[in-house]
Amino acid sequence: MKKTIKDIEVKGKKILLRLDLNVPLNKETGEISDDTRIMESLSTINYLCENGARVLICSHLGRPEGIDKKYSLKPVAEKLEKILKHKVFFAEDTVGKDAKTKSKELCDGEVLVLENLRFDKREEENDEGFCKELASLADIYVNDAFGTAHRKHASTYGVANLLPNAVGFLMGKELKVINGILDNPKRPFVAILGGAKIKDKIPVIENLILKADTILIGGGMSYTFKKALGGNVGKSLVDEEKLELAKSLIEKAKANNVELVLPVDTVCALDFSSEAKSKKFSAEQIPDEYMGMDIGKKTIKIFKKYIKKAGTIVWNGPLGVFEFDKFAKGTNKIAKAISKTKAFTFIGGGDSASAIIKSGYAKEVNHISTGGGASLNMLEGKVLPGVEAIDEVGQEKKFVKDKNTSKTAKKSTSKKPATKKSTAKKTTTKKSTTKKTNSKKTVKEK
Ligand code: AMP
């Protein structure tokens, strides 16, 4: 089991806390259009503050090419300050003079947000020098950014080798849920896979053939399977290069006694448009000029039968072009069926998370992952670099402490503790922030 923040003494320690604060920004105003990622990080931030840590938050935002103020984390720091209802400091750089000065001045229970990690190209290169500079700011590293745990970057991977480390609450919960599903699922274990990018889903199918009882395939990728079996799929989305692989997966599923269930009927259109007239066809006999846009009624009925009997459900990828209302029926019906089942239900982030939120059934789901790519990688059976880098309980690796790092650590421990006043202030804010976290929480026990 990975070390969590509860396994470490944080009082008076400078914690480099990697969060996923990659919030969506309004294209015109640049304002934060959805603060879910900030809200999801609150439980770890609050725990660290309440336990007297000095919290240095780092994150990426967007895909800037070098320094680009459009992607500054300053508005995120300001938003966080409003939510926490206590001062949040901001460093104008990531590992530069301002970050160094402000991190040294931080008192117990205080929060400092560093500027966007990706303003420095060394972040994504997992550059050794950048890792050392990040590590020199803190005594302990905590990773709570599940959404970027599949990236081998300085702040998600390299820095963990230089400092004592642990995972935060959000990451801990994701690992517990996904590992639990893969290692010990309540059966029958039903996986529902949709979406368009068959190349992303094939490794998931390959791994789930070894774990699941039933795999229901819908969405754009189902037509590659249909064509592989000799069906006529018209203009539907097909990955010609993956036809053979699709055929071999069907065989592999059979050999492993796993039911791989494909659509029997499909809602089609002449063009890829929200206004397109829809027409239903058998999934094997789509006329040449039509393309499959959604699963049909009979398929929904079949899928619902499996969902009803399931003990565990994993869903990744919409079952049709759900962005167009006309072709969202299959996805919405399946979302509703998932919300009504007694099974443990897991939604793998990304489009499936948007689809369940859009359909209004998100509250009924046990766990909606905060990492689309990361959860997909775990379902493939991969170990995420950001997870691998964190120590197991009782097996702490000997981290390399360079001169810079020990100097910082020494200074930090000799720092005077925070005043009673600042601690009291934090305690009074606890209730309101916790309440907010709960009300917006997407991760929920049934
Ligand atoms: P993915 O990222 O692979 O999960 O794909 C998600 C996308 O798949 C969504 O934007 C859907 O609109 C798209 N999609 C689902 N079904 C179809 C389909 N039948 N044809 C084309 N695109 C689809």
What would you note in describing this structure?
38% of the residues lie in helices and 15% in strands. The chain is built from 15 helices and 17 strands. The strands form four sheets. The protein has a six-stranded parallel beta sheet with strand order 3-4-2-1-5-6, sandwiched between helices. A six-stranded parallel beta sheet has the order 10-8-7-15-16-17, with helices on both faces. It has a three-stranded antiparallel beta sheet with strand order 12-11-14. Helix 1 packs across helix 2 and helix 7 (222-228) packs across helix 8. It folds into two domains: 5-164, Rossmann fold (3-Layer(aba) Sandwich), CATH 3.40.50; 175-379, Phosphoglycerate kinase, N-terminal domain (Rossmann fold). Mean pLDDT is 90; it is low at 403-446. The relative contact order is 0.15. Strand 3, helix 3 (97-105) and strand 4 form a beta-alpha-beta unit. It has helices at 36-50, 74-84, 97-105, 128-135, 169-183, 198-208, 222-228, 243-255, 297-309, 329-340, 350-359, 372-379, 385-388, 403-413, 420-440, and strands at 14-18, 54-58, 88-90, 111-113, 140-143, 165-167, 189-193, 214-217, 232-233, 259-261, 265-269, 278-282, 285-286, 291-295, 312-316, 344-347, 367-368. The protein is an alpha/beta fold. The structure holds adenosine monophosphate. Adenosine monophosphate binds at residues 194-197, 200, 219-220, 237, 292-293, 317-318, 320-323, 351.
